[in-house]
Amino acid sequence: MLYAGVDIGSTTSKAALVDEDGREVMFASIMTEFNRNASGEKVLQNVLEKAGASIEDVAYTISTGYGRKAFERADKNIPEIIAHAVGTEYVYPGARTIIDIGGQDSKVIELDAGGNVDKFGMNDKCAAGTGRFFEVLTHRLLGVEMEELSDLILKAENPVEISSMCTIFAESEIISHLSQNIPIEDIAAGTGVSIARRIIAQGKAARISFPEPIVFSGGVANNKGIERIFAKLLNKEVHAIEKPQSTAALGAALRARKEHQKA
């Protein structure tokens, strides 16, 4: 018997399966479509096909993320903050801080010694401090794909100062730096520093002290350059996990197993 977690985010939809012993079986990710319910169905079918299973093998399903309430097949839905905590504790036991940067939001979550959410800060009202902020500013202005961004940041020698966190005003600053022939790696790194500072401030505003171990998740966690920036600004080790987009879906799947077994 399998248990499914479906995380329908603003940019990508993810699904994870765990077995009766709580072991991760499979993970899948697709781009989120306009129809959130259809996205959930598609990514769930995708992960089942990868696992060589069918919907009849799934005993219980929990959804999370922005589109969690739209997913009609789910037996229950839970907030993504809880799902992230459960999933992160599974992949990185003992984690005390989670920095998660998604396509259109960012979160800083502090966990207690038992892996439960103690406090959190979240930005889901503004593109600043999100993957979308990176995408708009670097792809459109610098002509750099997201996959190339990490290497550029790691090559930077003198990151520029990007003082504005408003996407429009930051764009003007970047254009000004480009007109001065500043190397694009220094502009990319400056953008990364600006985003990291905002997210750290977001956490501190929620009275998060960034206790270690600190885990970096979400799509932006694939960027080693940003991981290094966080570590430098916090003066602490920051650990990007494998499959950084999987934690919420995995946490939902683990909670699905728990809900079904206690019923």
Automatic annotation (TrEMBL):
InterPro entries: ATPase_BadF, ATPase_NBD, CoA_E_activase_dom, Dehydratase_Activator_Redct. SUPFAM superfamilies: Actin-like ATPase domain. Keywords: Iron, Iron-sulfur, Metal-binding. Residues 5-256 form the ATPase BadF/BadG/BcrA/BcrD type domain. The keyword Metal-binding applies. GO terms for molecular function: iron-sulfur cluster binding; metal ion binding. The keyword Iron-sulfur applies. It holds the Pfam family BcrAD_BadFG. Its cofactor is [4Fe-4S] cluster. This is 2-hydroxyglutaryl-CoA dehydratase. It comes from Schaedlerella arabinosiphila.
